[in-house]
Each structure stands twice: as C-alpha cells, then as structure tokens.
Design goal:
Helix 6 runs antiparallel to helix 7, helix 9 crosses helix 11 and helix 9 crosses helix 12. The mean pLDDT is about 95. The chain has about 450 residues and is an alpha/beta fold. Helix content is about 40%, strand content about 15%. Strand 10 and strand 11 form a beta hairpin. It binds glutamine. Glutamine binds next to loops. The site of glutamine has 14 residues, from loops. It is an enzyme of class 6 (ligase). InterPro entries: Amidase (IPR000120), Amidase_CS (IPR020556), Amidase_dom (IPR023631), AS_sf (IPR036928), GatA (IPR004412).
C-alpha cells in the first residue's frame, strides 16, 4: 500500500509506470495468508516488484513501449516473472521504456518520456528508464530490466541505483520481447547490491524454454553480496583500468568520481592495473550493425496478423502490413529496421554484418587477455550524468555514444554491474561505476560491488 500510495503521489510527475496492477493488494494479502499458515517463503516474499514492459505478463498489458502492441495481453508470463511470482514477489506494474528497448533516454517510448526523479527536466536513462526511475523515486523497492547494450546499467548510473547485466545465458530470455537475441539479458535494478543479488537468485538459472540458457548451477548472489560487504575482498583485488578510455571522453565530474572510487579501492588494498582493450572503441560501431540486423529480423513478426495493431485501408496483405508498421512503429524503430535490413542485404552482408562480427570477436579477445591479468575491469558506467530531456533526441549518433562503456559486455556476453559512486561536482547528479567480470563470474561483481557500496 505504501508503494501504491507513493506511485499515486509522484508518478504523475515521474511517469515511471505504463500500467499499475490492480491485483497487487490481493496478491500481497494472499502472501500474508500463506505466511500465517506457516508456509516457508523466500526472503523476498511479499516484496513489490516493478516489471519492465519488455517482459510479458498475463495480468497486465505488455507493449514494449510501442503503439504496435498497445493493450496487448500475453497468454503466458515471462520466465523471470513466473519465477518472481513463485517466490512470492508482488508485481506492482509495468514500467516505461524506449520503444522495443531502442534508446538511452526513454524518450523513444510511444507513451511519452519518464522523468528523472533527481531532476524532472532530465532523462532517467534508457531504455529501462521507467524501472530505474521507479526504484530511485521509492515507487518500487525492486525492478526488472533488460540490457542489450546498457539499458539496465546506464539508467542505474543516471538515477543513483544499482543495475546488473548477468552473464549471457544466466537469466532466461523466454517472454522478454526480443530486441537483439545474441545481446539481450534480463537483470535486476535495485537500490542496493544485496537487493540485486536477492532478485538475481530468484530469476536466474537454467530454463529449458530459452535455447541459450546456461545449465550452470549458480552460487547465491545474495550470499556473495553479504560476503563482500565487509570490504575484505578488496585486499589484493586486481582492478583493470582501460588505457584506451582516457578521462577526456567523460564529463569531468564523472571522471573525478571514477578516480575517487579507484582511490578508495586502492586504500583498502586493491591494486589498480592498466590494461589495454584496443577494440573497445569499435564496440559502438559494431553494435549498431549487429543490433539493427537482429532487431529487423525479430520485429518482422509484427506483421498485422499475429500480434497487436492492424491498420487496414484496403489493398493487398502487403499494403495492410505496410500501413500497420508505418502507423505502429516510431522513428527510431524504423531507422534501425532500415539499417538492419540494409546491413543484411545481399552484396553488403560481408562488408557490414560480417565485419561487425569480426570486431565482436576482437572485443571478446580483448576481454580474454584483460582477464588473464585482472579480476575485474572498472569503467565509468556512462560518459555523462543525466542530460536534459530533448537535448539529444534529434541526434541519434550522440544518443548512441551513451553506451560506449556498456556495449562491450553485451558483445562479449560477460556480466556487468553499475553501482552509485557519488555525485558529480558540477551538477550534483548521480554517477555510477561499472565493474565487468569474466563470463559466469557474476558472483565476483556482487562481492566487489557490496564492498565498495
Ligand atoms: N541504448 C542502447 C540502444 O539504444 C541500449 C539498448 C538496450 O540495452 N536495450 O540500443
């Protein structure tokens, strides 16, 4: 009730939610009854959960921020939602996002932008700005996001929250409306590292419905966060800093906060090691070929027949499809579909998609040689603090550069965490520090994140 009251109080300004559940109180009361009956419930039983609208739910519409899916009701729950319900979490509502998770500011939502609770004239990050804003504004204690190139970590950075992109395959993508299937991962957005660990424990692990799901038995990430909390893990920890990411690429307050965190870690026994990752700088370029290519294929299913909107002004089936997609998709989605189909077309495939895949391999090799020398890599989570709504909306290339430091993890499939590192001196806005670990070493991120927190 406190969270629903908070939503009623602030969400007309913040606009984190696209839909608020009318079943949350009933579900919570049901949990209370089960608890009273002596049923052993998990640590998160009864805790409200905000769900990014990219994740399908049976009891609330799932639009992925698009008009083409307005009012769409899924016949099944995403695996992560089903697992959350089974653990007794209470879905509170669906959060706003850039359309089909394409963007860094939530301004590409077909339902209007979300506002950053720290300053309502600023962006909450994207694509999962709704989930991050809901958590930052105390409208929800926990949220789910999805991260294809930074959509969990960059919103966490600009809202002073914690966001985790798990190892690729660590969390099921079943029921996550696909953006780019080889990059997408679902993960937690919370106010503390321990909260993320608790939620990750609930949603993670093998799912036979996702063909890329890893069969690993994962350690408890909550336990890792609790282990890390006393800071001991920092003693002798080798922290890699990438030489090819000079301070000049970051807003001064972001760079200063990053160095303050490194100094703090060093003071507690960590060793800062310079490493080279020469191909990181090509990550954004490779990503903006691979992502549109995969997205153009994934979005082909919105054909006016199987899901959502149909605009029928007569003519052939193709005319109906074209009219539907023209009316249902926003500018950014159209831009990427055109880019993706072009990159995949005969005669250009090798030059664009093929080259991008080679760069992807080189970035994976950069990570492999870096992790032979260090335990974790640290970077600022994004180049700037929250910018003003409208500031970058007409400049797609500027928007794309927000993901400079987050994209490599998606291209390589490694896990990443963004935790708050302080406020930028020049504007008083939150800044995040990102840690990256080798694939399957998500627990290391929880230890280190909790130590620094
Ligand atoms: N901002 C990036 C993009 O626009 C990341 C999106 C995401 O992670 N879903 O593609």
């Amino acid at each position: 009730r406190a969270h629903l009251d908070r939503i009623a109080d602030v969400d007309t300004d913040v606009r984190a939610f696209l839909h608020v559940s009318d079943r949350a109180i009933d579900t919570a009361e049901e949990i209370d009854r089960r608890r009273a009956a002596g049923e052993p419930l998990g640590e998160l039983a009864g805790v409200p959960l905000a769900v990014k609208d990219v994740l399908v739910t049976t009891d609330m519409p799932s639009t992925s921020g698009s008009k083409i899916l307005e009012g769409y009701m899924s016949p099944f729950d995403a695996t992560v939602v089903a697992r959350a319900r089974a653990a007794g979490l209470v879905p509170l509502g669906k959060t706003n996002m850039d359309e089909f998770a394409m963007g860094s500011s939530t301004e590409h939502s077909a339902y209007g932008p979300t506002h950053n609770p720290w300053d309502l004239e600023r962006i909450p990050g994207g694509s999962g700005g709704g989930s991050a804003a809901a958590v930052a504004a105390f409208e929800a204690p926990l949220a789910l996001g999805s991260d294809t190139g930074g959509s969990i970590r960059q919103p966490a950075h600009v809202t002073g929250t914690v966001g985790v992109k798990p190892t690729y395959g660590g969390v099921s993508r079943y029921g996550a409306i696909a953006l780019a299937s080889s990059l997408d991962q679902v993960g937690p957005v919370t106010r503390t590292v321990l909260d993320s660990g608790l939620l990750h424990d609930v949603i993670g692990g093998h799912d036979h419905r996702d063909s890329t799901s890893l069969t690993d038995v994962w350690p408890s990430f909550a336990a890792a966060a609790r282990e890390g909390a006393n800071g001991e893990v920092l003693k002798g920890l080798k922290v890699g800093v990438i030489t090819e990411l000079p301070d000049s690429g970051f807003q001064p307050g972001v760079a200063a906060s990053f160095h303050a965190s490194l100094d703090l870690m060093q003071a507690h026994g960590a060793e800062i090691v310079e490493i080279s990752a020469p191909h990181f700088e090509y990550g954004v370029a490779a990503y903006y070929l691979i992502l549109p290519a995969e997205a153009s294929s994934n979005l082909a299913k919105f054909d006016s027949v199987r899901f959502g909107l149909r605009v029928n002004r007569g003519g052939t089936v193709e005319d109906v499809m074209a009219a539907t997609r023209d009316a249902g998709f926003g500018e950014e989605v159209k831009r990427r579909i055109i880019l993706g189909t072009y990159a995949l077309s005969a005669g250009y495939y090798d030059a664009y998609y093929g080259s991008a895949q080679k760069v992807r391999t080189l970035i994976q090799q950069d990570f492999a040689s870096a992790f032979a020398q260090v335990d974790v890599i640290a970077t600022p989570s994004a180049p700037t603090t929250a910018f003003k709504l409208g500031e970058k909306i007409d400049d797609p290339l500027q928007m794309y550069l927000n993901d400079l430091t987050t994209i490599p993890a998606n291209l390589a499939g490694v896990p990443g965490i963004s935790i708050p590192s302080g406020l930028a001196a020049e504007d008083g806005l939150p800044v995040g520090i990102q840690f990256l670990a080798p694939a399957r070493e998500d627990a290391r991120l929880y230890r280190v994140g909790a130590a620094l927190e």
